[in-house]
Specification:
About 40% of the residues lie in helices and about 15% in strands. By secondary structure, the protein is of the alpha/beta class. Helix 1 runs parallel beside helix 11 and helix 5 packs across helix 7. The structure holds 2-phosphoglycolic acid (PGA).
Length: about 250
């Protein structure tokens, strides 16, 4: 039984003051929750990590970074290491978000280094894959998504399946309000799990949690969660407001 995971990706939104206010609101809502099942992860800008670690201490909410650089330390101006994320309170790291691929030119080979760095620093990777609209229309969805997975996981053994989370995020659905049909998201999640089975065996592959991402919101989350290969969501816009994030947490149980 895979535990659902709802991760809020705040992108470049929220000052520390805004993050603190969100934490207070979410904590108040969580008081109503009686032993919920799903895992709750907030991925704020780096500047808000330590603030949220302190504000959310003792709560079930976990934290994640939105990116990391695959070196322990060094002369890499503007970058952040996995151990720094850990120290600031993160237990997850989003890797390969389509915005990183698109605006910062991150290749599958570079993302492979990041996945390895995250694992060696004790961070659980949330690895994002997804096709563009042109690729979907061109019938390339399966080859693009499976290719991104193969590239980012090159050289890793089945033990990665204990901690790995995959976020299937069709690029055309991110921030557009145009979410994928649950059945279409399931089709891709199924193909990703099939790839994992072939690479790592069925037992390991069946442990990996696969999220859907792309305009996921309170109105459509239940449809995704009902799919056999979808185990949660990576949430952008709807994760910025405590009330809508909370509604999704309730839907996931
Ligand atoms: P969205 O973003 O929910 O606002 O579409 C999802 C994401 O980019 O992870």
């Amino acid at each position: 039984m895979r535990r659902p995971i709802l991760a809020a990706n705040w992108k470049m939104y929220k000052t520390t003051a805004e993050a603190t206010a969100f934490a207070a609101e979410l904590l108040a809502l969580l008081k109503e929750r009686g032993g919920g099942q799903c895992e709750i992860v907030v991925c704020p800008p780096f500047t808000a990590l330590a603030v949220l670690r302190d504000a959310l201490a003792g709560s079930p909410v976990e934290l994640g970074g939105q990116n990391l650089y695959p070196q322990k330390e060094g002369a890499y101006t503007g970058e952040i290491s996995g151990s720094m994320l850990r120290e600031a309170g993160a237990s997850y790291a989003i890797i390969g978000h389509s915005e990183r691929r698109q605006y910062f030119g991150e290749s599958d080979a570079f993302l492979n280094e990041k996945v390895k760095a995250a694992l060696s620093e004790g961070l659980k990777p949330i690895l994002c894959v997804g096709e563009t609209l042109a690729q979907r229309r061109g019938g390339e969805m399966a080859s693009v998504c499976q290719g991104q997975l193969a590239g980012a996981l090159a050289g890793l053994d089945p033990s990665i399946c204990d901690t790995l989370v995959i976020a299937y995020e069709p690029v055309w659905a991110i921030g557009t309000g145009e979410s994928a049909q649950a059945a279409d998201a399931q089709e891709t999640a199924g193909l990703l799990r099939q790839w994992l089975r072939e690479a790592y065996g069925a037992t390991a592959a069946d442990q990996v949690r696969i999220q859907y991402g792309g305009s996921a919101k309170p109105e459509n989350i239940a449809g995704y969660l009902a799919m056999p290969d979808i185990d949660g969501a990576l949430i952008g816009g709807a994760g910025l407001k405590a009330a809508s994030y909370w509604a999704m947490i309730q839907a996931a149980g």
